[in-house]
Amino acid sequence: MKEKILELSDLFFDEIVSIRRYMHMHPELSFQEFETSNYIKSILKSWDIHYLDGYANTGILVNLEGKEPSSRVIALRADFDALPILEENDVEYKSKNEGIMHACGHDAHTASMLGALKILHKMKDHWRGTIKFIFQPAEERLPGGAKQMIEEGVLENPNVQHVIAQHVLPELEVGKVGFRSGIYMASTDELYISISGKGGHAAIPSSYNNPIIASSELVLDFNKFFNDKADAIFAIGYIDGKGSTNIIPNEVNLMGTFRALDESFRLESHNHMNRIVDQVAKKYNIKIDLNIKKGYPALNNDIQFTLNQINKAKEFLGEKNVIDLPIRMTAEDFSYFANAVPSCFYRLGTGNKDKGLIHGLHTSKFNIDEDSLKIGMGLMAFLAIS
Prior knowledge:
It is a single chain. By secondary structure, this protein is of the alpha/beta class. α3 (106-122) crosses α9 (371-385), α5 runs antiparallel to α6 and α7 (303-317) packs across α9. The chain has helices spanning 2-25, 34-46, 106-122, 145-151, 211-226, 263-284, 303-317, 335-340, 371-385, and strands at residues 52-55, 59-65, 73-79, 130-136, 162-173, 177-179, 182-185, 189-196, 200-201, 232-240, 247-248, 251-260, 287-294, 299-301, 322-324, 343-351. 45% of the residues are buried. Strands 1-2-4-3-5-16-6-15 form an 8-stranded mixed beta sheet, with helices on both faces. Strands 10-12-8-13 form a 4-stranded antiparallel beta sheet, with helices on one face. The protein has a two-stranded antiparallel ribbon with strand order 7-14. The chain has 2 domains: 2-185 and 298-385, Zn peptidases (Aminopeptidase); 189-294, Alpha-Beta Plaits (2-Layer Sandwich), CATH 3.30.70.360. The protein is built from 9 helices and 16 strands. A hairpin with a 3-residue loop joins β1 (52-55) and β2.
Protein backbone atom coordinates (compact mmCIF):
# COMPACT_ATOMS: atom_id res chain seq x y z
CA MET A 1 0.00 0.00 0.00
CA LYS A 2 2.81 2.41 0.85
CA GLU A 3 4.56 1.79 -2.45
CA LYS A 4 1.33 2.25 -4.41
CA ILE A 5 0.56 5.52 -2.61
CA LEU A 6 4.07 6.81 -3.31
CA GLU A 7 3.71 5.83 -6.97
CA LEU A 8 0.39 7.65 -7.31
CA SER A 9 1.72 10.69 -5.43
CA ASP A 10 4.40 11.00 -8.08
CA LEU A 11 1.88 10.47 -10.87
CA PHE A 12 -0.58 13.11 -9.62
CA PHE A 13 2.00 15.60 -8.33
CA ASP A 14 1.99 18.04 -11.26
CA GLU A 15 -1.80 18.25 -11.25
CA ILE A 16 -1.91 18.92 -7.51
CA VAL A 17 0.72 21.66 -7.85
CA SER A 18 -1.41 23.22 -10.58
CA ILE A 19 -4.48 23.11 -8.30
CA ARG A 20 -2.57 24.71 -5.46
CA ARG A 21 -1.29 27.50 -7.72
CA TYR A 22 -4.74 28.24 -9.10
CA MET A 23 -6.11 28.50 -5.57
CA HIS A 24 -3.19 30.70 -4.55
CA MET A 25 -3.96 33.07 -7.42
CA HIS A 26 -7.66 33.29 -6.50
CA PRO A 27 -7.91 33.60 -2.70
CA GLU A 28 -11.14 34.52 -0.95
CA LEU A 29 -11.85 35.65 2.61
CA SER A 30 -13.70 33.67 5.26
CA PHE A 31 -17.43 33.15 4.56
CA GLN A 32 -16.90 34.54 1.03
CA GLU A 33 -15.27 31.53 -0.66
CA PHE A 34 -17.91 31.00 -3.35
CA GLU A 35 -15.57 30.79 -6.34
CA THR A 36 -13.13 28.61 -4.41
CA SER A 37 -15.94 26.22 -3.54
CA ASN A 38 -17.06 26.11 -7.17
CA TYR A 39 -13.49 25.41 -8.27
CA ILE A 40 -13.15 22.47 -5.87
CA LYS A 41 -16.48 21.08 -7.08
CA SER A 42 -15.38 21.42 -10.70
CA ILE A 43 -12.33 19.27 -9.93
CA LEU A 44 -14.46 16.64 -8.22
CA LYS A 45 -16.81 16.57 -11.20
CA SER A 46 -13.89 16.13 -13.60
CA TRP A 47 -12.74 13.15 -11.51
CA ASP A 48 -16.28 11.72 -11.49
CA ILE A 49 -16.45 11.93 -7.68
CA HIS A 50 -19.82 12.55 -6.04
CA TYR A 51 -20.01 15.28 -3.39
CA LEU A 52 -22.45 16.99 -1.06
CA ASP A 53 -22.35 20.78 -0.73
CA GLY A 54 -24.01 23.63 1.16
CA TYR A 55 -22.39 22.94 4.52
CA ALA A 56 -21.66 26.34 6.12
CA ASN A 57 -22.75 27.75 2.73
CA THR A 58 -19.55 26.92 0.81
CA GLY A 59 -18.34 23.73 2.51
CA ILE A 60 -18.14 20.42 0.66
CA LEU A 61 -18.23 16.78 1.77
CA VAL A 62 -17.13 13.67 -0.10
CA ASN A 63 -17.99 10.22 1.26
CA LEU A 64 -15.56 7.80 -0.37
CA GLU A 65 -16.33 4.13 0.17
CA GLY A 66 -13.84 1.29 0.00
CA LYS A 67 -14.51 -2.36 0.75
CA GLU A 68 -16.88 -3.03 3.67
CA PRO A 69 -17.91 0.66 3.94
CA SER A 70 -19.49 0.32 7.38
CA SER A 71 -16.43 -1.32 8.98
CA ARG A 72 -14.70 1.99 9.85
CA VAL A 73 -15.28 5.69 9.20
CA ILE A 74 -12.38 8.16 9.14
CA ALA A 75 -12.55 11.84 8.15
CA LEU A 76 -9.90 14.08 6.63
CA ARG A 77 -10.33 17.84 6.84
CA ALA A 78 -8.83 20.76 4.90
CA ASP A 79 -9.73 24.46 5.09
CA PHE A 80 -9.75 26.81 2.08
CA ASP A 81 -10.23 30.44 3.16
CA ALA A 82 -7.54 33.13 2.87
CA LEU A 83 -6.40 36.24 4.78
CA PRO A 84 -6.68 40.03 4.25
CA ILE A 85 -2.97 40.43 3.43
CA LEU A 86 -1.34 42.06 0.38
CA GLU A 87 1.02 39.50 -1.15
CA GLU A 88 4.63 40.58 -1.78
CA ASN A 89 5.92 37.40 -3.41
CA ASP A 90 7.26 37.72 -6.97
CA VAL A 91 5.92 34.45 -8.38
CA GLU A 92 3.88 33.63 -11.48
CA TYR A 93 1.00 32.42 -9.32
CA LYS A 94 0.85 35.55 -7.15
CA SER A 95 -2.60 36.49 -5.82
CA LYS A 96 -4.79 38.25 -8.36
CA ASN A 97 -7.19 39.44 -5.66
CA GLU A 98 -5.41 42.48 -4.29
CA GLY A 99 -5.23 42.62 -0.52
CA ILE A 100 -6.16 38.93 -0.14
CA MET A 101 -3.61 36.14 0.14
CA HIS A 102 -3.28 32.47 1.06
CA ALA A 103 -0.80 33.43 3.77
CA CYS A 104 -1.69 30.50 6.04
CA GLY A 105 -1.31 27.73 3.47
CA HIS A 106 -4.95 26.74 3.14
CA ASP A 107 -4.43 26.40 -0.62
CA ALA A 108 -1.81 23.75 0.18
CA HIS A 109 -4.13 22.04 2.67
CA THR A 110 -6.91 21.70 0.11
CA ALA A 111 -4.60 20.69 -2.74
CA SER A 112 -2.98 18.01 -0.55
CA MET A 113 -6.34 16.60 0.48
CA LEU A 114 -7.55 16.58 -3.12
CA GLY A 115 -4.42 14.62 -3.94
CA ALA A 116 -5.15 12.15 -1.15
CA LEU A 117 -8.72 11.85 -2.41
CA LYS A 118 -7.59 11.09 -5.95
CA ILE A 119 -5.12 8.49 -4.68
CA LEU A 120 -7.68 6.73 -2.50
CA HIS A 121 -10.36 6.90 -5.18
CA LYS A 122 -7.95 5.11 -7.51
CA MET A 123 -7.23 2.52 -4.79
CA LYS A 124 -10.76 2.11 -3.40
CA ASP A 125 -10.77 -1.65 -4.07
CA HIS A 126 -7.73 -2.06 -1.82
CA TRP A 127 -8.77 -0.51 1.52
CA ARG A 128 -11.62 -0.97 3.98
CA GLY A 129 -14.21 1.42 5.33
CA THR A 130 -15.46 4.91 4.48
CA ILE A 131 -13.35 8.06 4.33
CA LYS A 132 -15.04 11.45 4.59
CA PHE A 133 -13.25 14.38 2.98
CA ILE A 134 -14.33 17.62 4.66
CA PHE A 135 -13.54 20.78 2.66
CA GLN A 136 -14.13 23.53 5.21
CA PRO A 137 -14.54 27.30 4.79
CA ALA A 138 -13.87 30.07 7.28
CA GLU A 139 -11.17 28.78 9.61
CA GLU A 140 -9.66 32.24 9.99
CA ARG A 141 -12.68 34.10 11.33
CA LEU A 142 -14.95 33.53 14.31
CA PRO A 143 -17.18 31.63 14.77
CA GLY A 144 -15.35 29.43 12.25
CA GLY A 145 -16.60 27.00 9.64
CA ALA A 146 -15.82 23.83 11.61
CA LYS A 147 -18.45 24.45 14.28
CA GLN A 148 -21.13 25.16 11.70
CA MET A 149 -20.30 22.11 9.57
CA ILE A 150 -20.44 19.86 12.64
CA GLU A 151 -23.80 21.35 13.68
CA GLU A 152 -25.06 20.66 10.15
CA GLY A 153 -24.17 16.98 10.44
CA VAL A 154 -20.89 16.61 8.55
CA LEU A 155 -19.70 13.96 11.04
CA GLU A 156 -22.91 11.93 10.74
CA ASN A 157 -24.46 9.45 8.28
CA PRO A 158 -22.21 7.57 8.65
CA ASN A 159 -20.83 8.58 12.05
CA VAL A 160 -17.14 9.48 12.04
CA GLN A 161 -14.84 7.70 14.50
CA HIS A 162 -11.70 9.84 14.02
CA VAL A 163 -10.69 13.02 12.19
CA ILE A 164 -7.23 13.85 10.80
CA ALA A 165 -5.96 17.21 9.53
CA GLN A 166 -2.60 18.59 8.52
CA HIS A 167 -1.36 22.20 8.57
CA VAL A 168 1.71 23.68 6.91
CA LEU A 169 4.64 24.78 9.08
CA PRO A 170 7.35 26.92 7.42
CA GLU A 171 9.71 26.56 10.40
CA LEU A 172 9.88 22.84 9.59
CA GLU A 173 11.98 21.80 6.59
CA VAL A 174 10.23 20.14 3.67
CA GLY A 175 10.39 16.38 4.02
CA LYS A 176 9.52 16.40 7.71
CA VAL A 177 6.27 16.33 9.65
CA GLY A 178 5.54 17.10 13.30
CA PHE A 179 3.09 15.71 15.86
CA ARG A 180 2.11 16.36 19.44
CA SER A 181 -0.25 14.13 21.41
CA GLY A 182 -2.47 15.68 24.05
CA ILE A 183 -2.91 19.44 24.38
CA TYR A 184 -1.32 21.21 21.41
CA MET A 185 -2.89 24.61 20.72
CA ALA A 186 -4.62 27.29 22.78
CA SER A 187 -8.17 28.56 22.95
CA THR A 188 -8.70 32.02 21.56
CA ASP A 189 -10.98 34.80 22.83
CA GLU A 190 -11.29 38.30 21.43
CA LEU A 191 -11.47 41.19 23.92
CA TYR A 192 -13.31 44.43 23.21
CA ILE A 193 -13.17 47.08 25.95
CA SER A 194 -14.81 50.48 26.07
CA ILE A 195 -13.83 52.96 28.84
CA SER A 196 -16.18 55.94 29.03
CA GLY A 197 -15.18 59.01 31.05
CA LYS A 198 -15.59 62.73 30.62
CA GLY A 199 -13.43 64.70 28.20
CA GLY A 200 -12.15 68.23 28.55
CA HIS A 201 -9.21 70.62 28.30
CA ALA A 202 -6.05 68.92 29.50
CA ALA A 203 -5.02 72.08 31.37
CA ILE A 204 -8.15 72.01 33.52
CA PRO A 205 -8.12 68.66 35.42
CA SER A 206 -11.25 69.53 37.37
CA SER A 207 -13.24 69.57 34.12
CA TYR A 208 -12.63 65.97 33.05
CA ASN A 209 -12.45 62.34 34.19
CA ASN A 210 -9.65 60.90 32.08
CA PRO A 211 -10.49 57.48 30.55
CA ILE A 212 -6.88 57.08 29.38
CA ILE A 213 -5.66 56.82 32.98
CA ALA A 214 -8.28 54.19 33.76
CA SER A 215 -7.51 52.23 30.59
CA SER A 216 -3.78 52.27 31.42
CA GLU A 217 -4.38 50.86 34.88
CA LEU A 218 -6.78 48.28 33.49
CA VAL A 219 -4.20 46.95 31.02
CA LEU A 220 -1.50 46.87 33.71
CA ASP A 221 -3.79 45.00 36.12
CA PHE A 222 -4.65 42.47 33.43
CA ASN A 223 -0.97 42.03 32.63
CA LYS A 224 -0.13 41.57 36.31
CA PHE A 225 -2.71 38.79 36.62
CA PHE A 226 -1.52 36.93 33.51
CA ASN A 227 2.19 37.67 33.81
CA ASP A 228 3.16 34.45 35.60
CA LYS A 229 0.71 32.19 33.75
CA ALA A 230 2.86 30.07 31.44
CA ASP A 231 -0.18 28.41 29.91
CA ALA A 232 -1.96 31.65 28.97
CA ILE A 233 -1.50 34.74 26.81
CA PHE A 234 -3.04 38.18 27.27
CA ALA A 235 -2.25 41.02 24.88
CA ILE A 236 -3.77 44.34 23.89
CA GLY A 237 -3.14 45.13 20.24
CA TYR A 238 -5.30 48.22 19.73
CA ILE A 239 -5.86 51.44 21.65
CA ASP A 240 -7.98 54.32 20.33
CA GLY A 241 -8.44 57.48 22.37
CA LYS A 242 -8.99 60.18 19.75
CA GLY A 243 -7.62 62.91 21.98
CA SER A 244 -4.70 65.24 21.37
CA THR A 245 -1.90 67.04 23.21
CA ASN A 246 -4.36 69.16 25.16
CA ILE A 247 -7.60 67.24 24.58
CA ILE A 248 -8.83 64.55 26.94
CA PRO A 249 -11.25 62.25 25.06
CA ASN A 250 -14.61 61.05 26.32
CA GLU A 251 -13.86 57.44 25.52
CA VAL A 252 -11.03 54.97 24.97
CA ASN A 253 -11.49 51.71 23.10
CA LEU A 254 -9.20 48.70 23.41
CA MET A 255 -9.01 45.41 21.54
CA GLY A 256 -6.95 42.37 22.44
CA THR A 257 -6.71 38.62 22.73
CA PHE A 258 -6.76 36.07 25.52
CA ARG A 259 -5.55 32.51 25.00
CA ALA A 260 -5.35 29.54 27.33
CA LEU A 261 -4.52 25.84 27.27
CA ASP A 262 -6.91 24.82 30.04
CA GLU A 263 -10.65 25.33 29.63
CA SER A 264 -11.29 25.60 33.38
CA PHE A 265 -8.65 28.31 33.71
CA ARG A 266 -10.14 30.01 30.66
CA LEU A 267 -13.52 30.37 32.38
CA GLU A 268 -11.89 31.39 35.67
CA SER A 269 -9.94 34.08 33.82
CA HIS A 270 -13.08 35.47 32.20
CA ASN A 271 -14.54 35.92 35.68
CA HIS A 272 -11.32 37.46 37.02
CA MET A 273 -11.11 39.95 34.15
CA ASN A 274 -14.64 41.08 34.94
CA ARG A 275 -13.67 41.56 38.60
CA ILE A 276 -10.69 43.70 37.57
CA VAL A 277 -12.96 45.78 35.36
CA ASP A 278 -15.34 46.38 38.27
CA GLN A 279 -12.47 47.40 40.57
CA VAL A 280 -10.94 49.89 38.12
CA ALA A 281 -14.34 51.32 37.18
CA LYS A 282 -15.18 51.90 40.84
CA LYS A 283 -11.76 53.40 41.63
CA TYR A 284 -12.01 56.00 38.86
CA ASN A 285 -15.79 56.46 38.93
CA ILE A 286 -15.88 55.56 35.27
CA LYS A 287 -17.89 53.22 33.04
CA ILE A 288 -16.07 50.20 31.56
CA ASP A 289 -17.69 47.67 29.25
CA LEU A 290 -15.79 44.41 28.67
CA ASN A 291 -17.00 42.20 25.83
CA ILE A 292 -15.30 38.78 25.72
CA LYS A 293 -16.06 37.25 22.33
CA LYS A 294 -15.52 33.58 23.01
CA GLY A 295 -13.61 31.87 20.24
CA TYR A 296 -12.21 28.44 19.49
CA PRO A 297 -11.53 26.02 22.35
CA ALA A 298 -8.07 24.60 23.03
CA LEU A 299 -6.98 21.88 20.59
CA ASN A 300 -6.42 18.53 22.27
CA ASN A 301 -5.04 15.69 20.13
CA ASP A 302 -6.32 12.32 21.33
CA ILE A 303 -3.27 10.68 22.90
CA GLN A 304 -3.66 7.09 21.74
CA PHE A 305 -4.95 7.95 18.29
CA THR A 306 -2.15 10.49 17.75
CA LEU A 307 0.52 8.03 18.92
CA ASN A 308 -0.84 5.59 16.33
CA GLN A 309 -0.56 8.26 13.63
CA ILE A 310 3.01 9.03 14.70
CA ASN A 311 3.95 5.38 14.26
CA LYS A 312 2.29 5.26 10.84
CA ALA A 313 4.03 8.50 9.78
CA LYS A 314 7.38 7.00 10.76
CA GLU A 315 6.54 3.93 8.70
CA PHE A 316 5.72 6.12 5.69
CA LEU A 317 8.45 8.78 5.93
CA GLY A 318 11.14 7.23 8.13
CA GLU A 319 11.67 7.85 11.82
CA LYS A 320 14.13 10.73 11.37
CA ASN A 321 11.52 12.73 9.43
CA VAL A 322 8.87 12.70 12.16
CA ILE A 323 9.50 15.15 15.00
CA ASP A 324 7.85 16.10 18.30
CA LEU A 325 6.20 19.50 18.31
CA PRO A 326 6.12 22.02 21.17
CA ILE A 327 2.87 23.52 22.40
CA ARG A 328 1.70 26.56 20.40
CA MET A 329 -0.40 29.44 21.72
CA THR A 330 -1.93 29.95 18.28
CA ALA A 331 -5.46 28.62 17.76
CA GLU A 332 -7.35 26.44 15.28
CA ASP A 333 -11.04 25.73 14.81
CA PHE A 334 -10.14 22.09 14.16
CA SER A 335 -10.47 21.96 17.94
CA TYR A 336 -14.22 21.60 17.43
CA PHE A 337 -13.62 18.36 15.52
CA ALA A 338 -11.20 17.19 18.23
CA ASN A 339 -13.85 17.87 20.87
CA ALA A 340 -16.42 15.88 18.92
CA VAL A 341 -14.41 12.71 18.21
CA PRO A 342 -10.83 11.50 18.94
CA SER A 343 -8.69 13.37 16.43
CA CYS A 344 -5.16 14.22 15.29
CA PHE A 345 -3.92 17.57 13.95
CA TYR A 346 -0.32 17.50 12.71
CA ARG A 347 2.12 19.72 10.84
CA LEU A 348 3.59 19.42 7.34
CA GLY A 349 7.06 20.89 6.83
CA THR A 350 7.10 23.40 3.97
CA GLY A 351 10.24 25.47 4.60
CA ASN A 352 13.40 25.49 2.49
CA LYS A 353 16.20 27.85 3.49
CA ASP A 354 18.15 27.23 0.27
CA LYS A 355 15.17 28.48 -1.75
CA GLY A 356 14.53 31.40 0.60
CA LEU A 357 11.27 29.90 1.79
CA ILE A 358 11.66 31.06 5.38
CA HIS A 359 8.79 33.49 5.94
CA GLY A 360 6.23 32.79 8.62
CA LEU A 361 2.52 32.16 8.47
CA HIS A 362 0.25 35.23 8.16
CA THR A 363 3.03 37.28 6.51
CA SER A 364 3.05 38.90 3.07
CA LYS A 365 5.97 36.76 1.83
CA PHE A 366 4.85 33.37 3.09
CA ASN A 367 5.22 30.60 0.52
CA ILE A 368 5.83 26.86 0.51
CA ASP A 369 8.25 24.42 -1.07
CA GLU A 370 5.78 22.66 -3.35
CA ASP A 371 7.60 19.35 -2.92
CA SER A 372 5.72 19.26 0.38
CA LEU A 373 2.48 18.65 -1.54
CA LYS A 374 3.71 15.22 -2.61
CA ILE A 375 4.44 14.36 1.01
CA GLY A 376 1.18 15.93 2.18
CA MET A 377 -1.13 14.01 -0.13
CA GLY A 378 0.74 10.73 0.28
CA LEU A 379 0.85 10.86 4.06
CA MET A 380 -2.82 11.85 4.38
CA ALA A 381 -3.81 8.93 2.17
CA PHE A 382 -1.61 6.50 4.11
CA LEU A 383 -2.90 7.63 7.50
CA ALA A 384 -6.52 7.45 6.36
CA ILE A 385 -6.34 3.79 5.32
CA SER A 386 -3.94 2.55 8.02
